[in-house]
Amino acid sequence: MPQRKTSIKSMKLDRIRQARNRIIKADLKKIIKRYTELVSAKKIEEAKQQLKKVMSKLDRAAKKHLIHKNNASRQKSRLSLMLKA
Known about the structure:
Layout: H1 5-40, H2 44-63, H3 69-84
Helix pairs in contact: 1-2, 2-3
């Protein structure tokens, strides 16, 4: 356990940030899963609207360094290809 006040405070902040990041990542996974279900069910119009939300979430996650920007770019590319196919 840390002894200094600053170390204790930083540990508390790390826990808060970790919880926040976990929520954002879980939300991202849910929204991607919803999108893939729409695509597999051939609901094209709904999938297009969902794709915009997915792209936005991926960009935000990359901006906050939760995922790497290339990872976000790769996922966006694959998801859009899934819609076209």
